[in-house]
Design a protein that fits this description.
The structure is a homodimer of 499-residue chains. With 499 residues, the first copy, chain A, is an alpha+beta fold. Chain A contains 17 helices and 22 strands. Chains A and B meet through α10, α11, α13 and α14 of A and α10, α11, α13 and α14 of B.
């Protein structure tokens, strides 16, 4: 027989499941899993320190037996000298009131009760008895639903209880966000097989009240357990172990993918508010399709706080519109969200939200503070700084298109923004002093038609100095003779982060 | 009916499957998939340009029918005005000679023939007719084998034929590496369902020679197709589509994971030769478990050129030994490989390979070139540079432990390395001038017992100046009064990269 004390102890240690010298609440139904869990944790605690507190919720679902189960757990705890809290829930009426399924209502009542006991006991950790067979079923269930790496992680050995509640909320939206809780749900038996647990119980004279494995599972999960997994074992006898391993590998890969997304997100996020997320279109398009998908999902998650009803087709449609769509193209995504290919942003927003332009737009003449910060409306502002030419950044001519450096002597002391006027011309940098019509320049530069009228032009003493975001006038360029430089930067007004 | 010309055309374009103005070899068996493929590619080619060349291999497996199949494909090609090459293989005797299964021998013969035709025609692209149902089966098969993201990608829309041969070699080792070929295998129908292909054939009056879907599949795959997938459809009617989507998502995630591994590998690789890979132990330990696993797998792959027979347990054992093992601990991995926790490296090597120390070790007194480069043996060398104190790098005291900066006036002009001697003492930096026994210092610094005798000590005019890799003597530290500095660096002798 496998020495569960050793293997579970190792699993607990490697995954940092048990805090030392703190109270841990142990959810005990009276079935084999939770009896084995409690017995093992008592032996581990003797070595390692946490104080245990048993919690049992009487769901009131099994008529006479429910009360007997509760008494059994209370008596056992007393005889083992472990404090115990027994709670009572009327799951049937909860189901009637909430419209939840019986299983889901029971699960929510149970986790809610465990959280209450944890708070009352000053515990931050709640241990439950999910085993490797439960894990295999969970992985299989997610596989059959077409989940990617996220779902194929199955259950995690250690997870915030708040996350569980959010996950539940994704399904039903009836559980509050619960971010006030800082509770950890841990699963010390997650890599222990059900047969090992049963053997352990028999060996140690533990007599479970009933076969928990058949209780408290949904119809779908029951079919997986009793029909599909046995059928799959005829294809691969090791399937349950393999699925549990798949979960572990996927959990590791998920962390790697998440880190890669976080790093990419940092690079591509332009703005993130409660109603709209804007991703830098060029950077988003330059990243791999895997990160493009991940960023779209992240944007949806930030706007909706969940990914309920977001399926492969929704993400794929958004990704391909983003990759191939023309400026201004728009598509309804799902969950009340709309995607739009902006001039410099891939934009995902709540349906009906106002589309503020993703490039600066101005209504009329606007004097700039020199130096200083001038708000120009629509969420943009302009920062003018006075530099000595030796302060120029090394990469000053290859940086962001919305920053420019101008020879202050050539432009003069007074800077303003203005929209175009009929007959406007300028001498674009790189055209050897040739003058071109602004109208034609804008067409060649692919400025969208509806953005042309409000496009900001930076004007100095002698006319247009910068067609902002696009091209300097040759006469204001910084040269070796330049002594003082205006650095002009278009910035987003800060938006409070949504996360 | 779905317009396959449009959907397949889009798939081809998005995945860059067809080169323009080149020849593409199309593998045509005469079944529905390949007839549909050829018909569609002819219509797409009319718009986009590649020249098609049909290739058919007569496996000689179906007695009379085989020859009739070959004639059918040849006649059809002629009537469509497409050039055609028909080959002949004696798969049965191939099976006898090689010990391959019939399916595997047939597959190898087929891909070998397709590659030959491609070379003869100057083509770089070979198109084959795998469809979305084949893909679903492949993903399911990998899932049942416990594959991670790599396997759950299923078949790729575009892959090097050399990669296919390597994959085959992983199974059987009887196919040469084939890196001389630069052939691409493309699968334009990979997101098209079998029922759509059959409907297309019927609509366009194409009469397949036989039901290809039942030919040329292994026993295991046949069971998946005819038993398991129909059973899974009772759990989720959309399962085949979902599995095909899973493959696409996983292919994207694989690229992200691969990029993350490449970046991490760059940071943690110390040495990579044909018989040993050394990873920086501290950096490897500081990375996430997902990257730790990926790096171990990569190391095994680099040493063995495949991951055959490498399963979850092997990788997991290696990872946990690397995470928790003491210096010097050693374990047999698998496939003739041994893992060892070195002093500064996690080392994976061929069984029986000589364990060169992963820290510098010296046999006796050794004068150093000042300035200059001195080889000290065992794959290490020492570089001494003469710096002015204002040339010191900004982070000079927080850098690599195997680089030191010493006050040249305090150390003197002659530097040498020597091993310890009985009674050695020095004044460790940070101990306010206290002198300690070198022997005790080494124990406290956890220098492994068998590395102590050969541990290099840098000696100057007044004795030990640097216990190399560990601690400077206080008297030679760079101070504000320092004018000239010896920069001493221990480096690996360059090893030719293995990849």
């Amino acid at each position: 027989m496998i020495d569960l004390l050793k293997t579970v102890g190792q699993y607990v240690r490697r995954n940092s499941l048990l805090p030392e010298a703190e109270t841990v609440v142990v959810g005990v139904s009276g079935g084999a899993d939770s009896l084995c869990l409690l017995h093992l944790l008592r032996r581990l605690a003797a070595e390692r320190g946490p104080h245990l507190h048993v919690a049992h919720l009487n769901h009131g679902l099994r008529a006479v037996d429910s009360d007997a189960d509760a008494r059994f757990v209370a008596d056992l705890s007393q005889s083992w000298g472990t404090p115990c809290s027994v709670g009572q829930a009327d799951v049937r009426s909860l189901t009637r009131d909430s419209g939840l399924s019986l299983e889901e209502a029971a699960r929510q009542a149970r986790y809610g009760f465990l959280a209450e006991v944890a708070k009352a006991q000053g515990a931050r950790t709640i241990a439950v008895g999910h085993n490797a067979d439960d894990q295999a079923e969970t992985v299989l269930m997610h596989f059959l639903r077409g989940s990617g790496v996220t779902g194929l992680r199955g259950m995690l050995p250690r997870t915030r209880l708040a996350d569980y509640r959010i996950a539940a909320a994704q399904q039903r939206e009836s559980v509050p966000d619960g971010t006030e809780t800082q509770l950890w749900l841990v699963r010390p038996l997650l890599n222990t097989r059900r047969v090992e647990i049963e053997a352990y119980c028999a060996h140690h004279g533990l007599w479970p009240r009933f076969d928990l494995s058949n209780e408290d599972v949904t119809f779908f999960r029951n079919r997986l357990r009793h029909e599909l997994l046995p059928a799959l074992e005829r294809y691969n006898p090791e399937i349950r172990n393999l699925l549990a391993h798949t979960a572990e590998v996927m959990a590791g890969d998920y962390e790697t993918l998440r880190s890669a997304l976080d790093a990419a997100w940092e690079q591509m996020i332009l703005a993130s508010g409660p109603d709209e997320v804007q991703l830098d279109l060029l950077r988003w398009r330059a990243s791999s399709i895997g990160l493009q998908r991940a960023a779209v999902r992240e944007a949806i998650y930030r706007l909706r706080r969940n990914l309920r009803n977001i399926n492969w087709e929704h993400v794929e449609r958004a990704v391909w519109l983003g990759r191939e769509g023309q400026t201004g193209q728009l598509a309804t995504l799902t969950a009340g969200l709309v995607l739009r290919v902006g001039y410099r942003a891939l934009r995902i927003a709540a349906e009906g939200a106002q589309w503020l332009p993703d490039v600066p737009q101005i209504a009329g003449l606007l004097a700039l503070r020199t130096p200083g910060v001038t708000s120009i409306g629509n969420g943009w502002r302009v920062v003018v700084q006075d530099l000595n030419s030796c302060e120029l950044p090394r990469d000053y001519d290859t940086a962001d298109a919305w920053v420019a450096w101008l020879d202050a002597a050539a432009v003069g002391p007074n800077l303003s923004l203005r929209p175009r006027r009929p007959g406007d011309r300028f001498q674009p940098q790189g055209l050897c002093g040739h003058s071109v019509a602004l109208h034609e320049f804008m067409i060649n530069a692919k400025v969208p038609r509806d953005a042309r009228a409000g496009w900001p032009l930076l004007a100095g003493e002698y006319g247009i100095a910068w067609v902002c975001g696009l091209r300097l006038d040759e006469r204001v360029m910084v040269s070796d003779a330049t002594r003082n430089v205006w650095q002009v930067t278009f910035e987003r007004e800060p938006i409070p982060p949504s996360r």
